[in-house]
């Protein structure tokens, strides 16, 4: 009779999802198992999944750590590519911030997930919690404040305007352009942004400039 009851408890635990528990909860549960209590009973009373409790007891006997480690959402090679992308964007003068890194990571992560069906929920995107762990795994990346290129270096003066005009006139003549190649443009894109921004850059690199 006792064996049948334990089998029912085991089946119930196998079917249910595990709850939240701390490392201290796990250590206490393992201590109870070592003193002779049944795995199934301890699992049910502590909300620690039966299989987890069994595997952790095995790890404890082998001298392994009881700390719970979450597998990174992105493979280490993909994270390394993401670090290189951050460095490349910095080199070309378009540094990215935390939101940009998270957006790029989600672009890669969601592309790797299976297409949801009517019976499955769409995958959840990575969050700021993932970003903090990512930065912790890659100490080569550090928060920085971008420096605005001095106004004098991006100022359009009369000499520069004349040089551009004569260059364009020469190209129109050389390539025999007609009026169909003339486009109306405004100067919005050439207006400098005077505000500094929080970015992520390689640790030890020189000042991070943005246009």
UniProtKB/TrEMBL annotation:
Gene3D superfamilies: Homeodomain-like. Residues 66-144 form the HTH CENPB-type domain. InterPro entries: Homeodomain-like_sf, HTH_CenpB_DNA-bd_dom. It holds the Pfam family HTH_Tnp_Tc5. The keyword DNA-binding applies. Signal peptide: none annotated. Keywords: DNA-binding. GO terms for molecular function: DNA binding. It comes from the Eukaryota. This is HTH CENPB-type domain-containing protein. It comes from Phytophthora cactorum.
């Amino acid at each position: 009779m006792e064996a049948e009851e334990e089998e029912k408890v085991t089946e119930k635990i196998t079917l249910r999802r595990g709850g939240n528990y701390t490392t201290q909860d796990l250590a206490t549960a393992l201590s109870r198992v070592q003193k002779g209590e049944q795995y199934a009973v301890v699992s049910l009373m502590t909300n620690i999944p039966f299989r987890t409790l069994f595997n952790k007891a095995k790890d404890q006997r082998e001298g392994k750590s009881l700390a719970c480690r979450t597998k990174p959402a992105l493979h280490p090679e993909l994270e390394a590519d993401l670090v290189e992308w951050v460095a490349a964007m910095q080199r070309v003068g378009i540094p990215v911030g935390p939101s940009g890194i998270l957006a790029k990571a989600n672009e890669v992560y969601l592309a790797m997930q299976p297409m949801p069906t009517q019976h499955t929920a769409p995958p959840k995107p990575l969050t700021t919690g993932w970003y903090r762990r990512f930065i912790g795994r890659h100490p080569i990346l550090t928060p920085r404040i971008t420096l605005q290129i001095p106004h004098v270096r991006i100022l359009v003066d009369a000499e520069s305007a004349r040089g551009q005009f004569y260059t364009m006139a020469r190209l129109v003549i050389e390539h025999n352009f007609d009026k169909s190649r003339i486009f109306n443009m405004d100067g919005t894109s050439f207006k400098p942004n005077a505000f500094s921004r929080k970015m992520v850059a390689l640790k030890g690199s020189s000042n991070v400039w943005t246009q």
